[in-house]
Amino acid sequence: MCQKEVMEQSAGIMYRKSCASSAACLIASAGYQSFCSPGKLNSVCISCCNTPLCNGPRPKKRGSFASALRPTFPTTILLLKLALFLAHC
User: Fold this and answer.
1) Which PANTHER family has this protein been placed in (predicted)?
2) Would residue 88 count as lying in a domain?
């Protein structure tokens, strides 16, 4: 079976996807039922499924590191001016 764990921690949501025997996955899922509170800190939810790729892709993050590094408009202008200056040297 496919097994998916979703852990909500202070650092963010962590996902673990793996394969497990039917018995192991169902036991783990049942064992963590009392810890599964989606949206709450320290929640751990385990789900099982048995069709191809049924545990699906990881949800996209709302913000990403790449977008944090995107230069702002003034920075872009400054870099263009620097490039033009260096081209004339």
Assistant:
1) CD59 GLYCOPROTEIN, LY6_PLAUR DOMAIN-CONTAINING PROTEIN 1
2) no
